[in-house]
Amino acid sequence: MTELIRTIVTALVDHPDQVSVTKQETDDVVLYQLTTHPDDLGKVIGKQGRIAKAIRTVLFAAASHNEKRVQLEILE
User: In the record, which residues are listed under signal peptide (predicted)?
Assistant: First the structure.
């Protein structure tokens, strides 16, 4: 899942070498934290959050077979 997020985001940004994804797992939630170069933050979020919502939709679909909920947090 981490590689899926990294693959999607690196195609969108100008500084793909500064994309990092970390994973934190609890009993019922898997949280992925995405950090990018500050100039690329708007490209990942998109107008009115549309790109971020699309990325989250792909993650939810990919994790539908898991029992745990998946969350994506985009950090500055």
Answer: none
Any idea of the CA torsion for 52, 6, 67, 48, to the nearest 10 degrees?
0
CB neighbours (10 Å) of residue 67?
6
User: The CATH number of the domain where 55 resides is what?
Assistant: 3.30.300.20
Identify the domain containing residue 66 by its residue range: 2-75
Span 43-60, pLDDT tens digits = 999 999 999 999 999 999
Q: Max alpha carbon distance in the chain (Å)? A: 36
Whole-angstrom distance, CA of residue 16 vs CA of residue 7: 9
* Residue 38 Cα distances to 58, 63, 64, 66, angstroms: 24, 28, 31, 32
- How many Å apart are CA 42 and CA 46, to the nearest integer? 6
